[in-house]
Amino acid sequence: MNSRTELSSAGPSGLGKIVIVGAGPAGLLLALMLGQQGIPVTVLEAWGRLDERLRATQYGTPATRVFRKAGVLDEIRAAGIERFPSISWRKVDPEQTRITGIDLTVTKDEPDRTTVLPLNLLLKILLEHCKRQSSIEVKFEHKVIEVGQNESKAWADAVMPSNERKRFEGDYVIGCDGASSTVRQQLFGRNWPGITWDHSLLVQNVFYDGFTEHGWSGGNYMIDPNHWGLIAERGKGGLWRVTYGDIGGLTHEQYLKRREEHFEAMFPGHPKPDQYRVEQTDQFRIHNRCVEKMRVGRILLAADAAHVCNPFGGYGLMVGVLDIDGLTDCLIGMHQRKVGDEILDKYAEIRREKFLNYVEPRSIKNMNRLRAQNPDSALRDDKFLQILAHLEKDPEEAKAFLLKFSSIEHDFKQYYII
């Protein structure tokens, strides 16, 4: 096996190269925001292409603020759907009775309003922007198998299809390689505290005229112990994303056989299979986990490589985007000599605390709101739904609620020494 080393290109007045493992949304966004500041970045991706699985699609105000900062929000909006007027919570009954919801049109003129675009299309936008930056190189089919460090540098060893092994060195290595992160496993082995739920998520792209015919729009959370999930507009031309939970332990074929029952119960009009078209289906386990440390020396973790949660409420990608925004500000501050590397400890501690104190409990409440309460008494028993019912009567208060500075955000620039 041949072995070569790519050396760090240390700059005279700031950071040298940053090595990022993973070309998902976190890795590409971090590369773009660093590259825009002239910081050399190499992104290593095991796959030969961008991820095309059915993942995140809806991005709330904290995430859109970061996309605007990165200069990609306008393109995301142009590629996505502007018509996303509301989010509703419904019963799974003969009429799919609406319980309450929130009107998103109150923010229609705001630059940081919610936007919708399937993640695979967002990744293409991020990659194209990275290609325009001379300081960024993205290397597909470079599977990282080992990371290491010493006092002056960190490195990632990658294997290519030819079995050639190559070392990439930099000032820091950032693991953005998702829930099955090699970087995390190199640091902590199998130690990843948390739980895996005894459920599977079935996620599919669906075309069904009945949604529009029955007056559905936006996002629709379904509350029911057997048929719980989210049905939402997700693309142009009548594309909807249907996500629901099912019992664990079945084969993929068994899950697909059960899908007809779920769709008939959850969809307005209770259609049979010949009345809708499923274009893509993916299946996922549900986890809530977080590492004990997001920094070990010159190696750091971000987004799903550090922590994961169930997708209900949109926290998964949003918290990853906020990790990247915070880490970017920390590294740029170091590059501009406004702060020392102790700010990376603040990043690691604060972003982990945000997940454990806010994201994890809220995401669990969001999932349990759908699967573990009586839909007939949900509005009476659920304080969050009561808040939404109140906001429906006050558009200005609803607008403030949607645009407020979230408790999961954090400004790391406050630690700069100007």
Task: Give a structural overview.
The protein is α/β, with parallel strands linked by helices. The protein has a domain at 3-81 and 118-194 and 291-368: FAD/NAD(P)-binding domain. The protein is 33% helix and 27% strand. The protein has twelve helices and 20 strands. The chain has helices at 25-35, 61-70, 73-79, 119-131, 182-188, 210-213, 252-266, 315-335, 343-371, 378-381, 383-391, 395-403; strands at residues 3-6, 18-21, 41-44, 58-59, 86-91, 98-103, 115-116, 136-139, 143-149, 154-159, 165-170, 172-175, 194-207, 219-223, 229-235, 239-247, 277-290, 295-296, 299-301, 307-308. The protein has an eight-stranded mixed β-sheet with strand order 6-5-14-15-16-13-17-20. Helix 1 (25-35) runs parallel beside helix 4 (119-131) and helix 8 runs antiparallel to helix 9. The radius of gyration is 22 Å and the shape is globular. The termini are far apart. Mean pLDDT is 93; it is low at 1-12.
Q: Overall pLDDT, averaged? A: 93
Shape: globular
Contiguous runs where pLDDT drops below 50 for at least 5 residues = 1-12
CATH superfamily of the domain at 3-81 and 118-194 and 291-368: FAD/NAD(P)-binding domain
**β-strand number:** 20
The portion of residues forming beta strands comes to 25-35%
The count of helical stretches stands at 12
Derived structural class: alpha/beta
Helix content: 25-40%
CATH architecture of the domain at 3-81 and 118-194 and 291-368: 3-Layer(bba) Sandwich
Radius of gyration: 22 Å
Main sheet makeup: 8 strands, mixed
Distance between the termini: 49 Å
Top CATH class of the domain at 3-81 and 118-194 and 291-368 = Alpha Beta
CATH topology of the domain at 3-81 and 118-194 and 291-368: FAD/NAD(P)-binding domain
Strands of the largest sheet, in order across it? 6-5-14-15-16-13-17-20
GO molecular function: FAD binding; oxidoreductase activity, acting on paired donors, with incorporation or reduction of molecular oxygen, NAD(P)H as one donor, and incorporation of one atom of oxygen
Domain FAD-binding: 18-353
InterPro entries: FAD-bd, FAD/NAD-bd_sf, RIFMO-like
Protein name: FAD/NAD(P)-binding domain-containing protein
